[in-house]
């Protein structure tokens, strides 16, 4: 296990990058703390795999350094970094048995045979393949082979870090949940530094201690799942996390009031005059449907029943606005206004969150 430091890191696939737009990975300074579990989350093409490959040694960055502890490993290969990596698609030895595939990294290091057998049995139980240890890998399904890859990545206890590059893509949904739970249990037991790349917010939020959200080649926020939900530091985080994502409405800010198309929305904090494109953001969970003259007037388009709750789809000034309604909620006659909980509203300027002059405590979030 080791602390991983990214120092002034940036990467371009072009031979002579000129401006920021030429970099697939914008400048990044970050410390991955020893023993924590991280998820790299973002849409396809945002730079997640590029960053993971730099950490693993498969790619040398255009700029900056990678430190494992105090050791500069920027130009060291993967073997010298003592890491395990699991890729998106299964990498197994078809001519070997399942047990031999799992044992391979341990035998390469001359581990005692009895200890190897015990560790292989333990990992096989974790991935649900105890009864297939003597079977050849050839002919197994893609998800079974990926479970072997996961097991081989987890079988060593002495690695500096374990890196996962969208490892559950070919796994069926039920098994995904089980394997995420097992990965979390493994992390809690052995304390490996783990970095898990995914575009699936559920995978990221259920696996990681801290989630690193990437957008357009840069890290836009690092925080706990609660941080990402309650205080998205960038509009992309608000949009990408949650289902539906955060509502974003153009506004003008004056002190503790947001003016949206001539309608005043009270804010819980006081703000300076804000320049650029200004928006307020609020999650649908904290929007309520009301009648009367207060709130934002909207046009209701439809209501979707998704089981545990309903999603109200509406429009304001031609832009979508969503609200989460309780299961079985009956829309009152004449209800066409939305009320926003002031303490749950975030203010953004050119996509970045603006902190109020006076911090406002966020109330405890209740499950919806």
Automatic annotation (TrEMBL):
Record flagged with keyword Coiled coil: no
Keyword set, alphabetical order: ATP-binding, Cell membrane, Hydrolase, Membrane, Nucleotide-binding, Transport
Protein source organism: Yoonia vestfoldensis
Keyword Nuclease: no
Gene: ugpC
Superkingdom in the source lineage: Bacteria
Gene Ontology MF: a single term: ATP hydrolysis activity
Entry's family note: Belongs to the ABC transporter superfamily.
CDD domains the record matches: ABC_Carb_Solutes_like
ABC transporter domain mapped to chain residues: 4-241
Gene3D superfamilies per the UniProt record, alphabetical: 2.40.50.100, Nucleic acid-binding proteins, P-loop containing nucleotide triphosphate hydrolases
Protein known as: sn-glycerol-3-phosphate import ATP-binding protein UgpC
InterPro entries per record: AAA+_ATPase, ABC_transporter-like_ATP-bd, ABC_transpr_FbpC, ABC_transpr_MalK/UgpC-like, Mo/tungstate-bd_C_term_dom, NA-bd_OB-fold, OB_MalK-like, P-loop_NTPase
Alphabetical list of SUPFAM superfamilies matching this protein: MOP-like (SSF50331), P-loop containing nucleoside triphosphate hydrolases (SSF52540)
GO cellular component term of the entry, any: ATP-binding cassette (ABC) transporter complex, substrate-binding subunit-containing
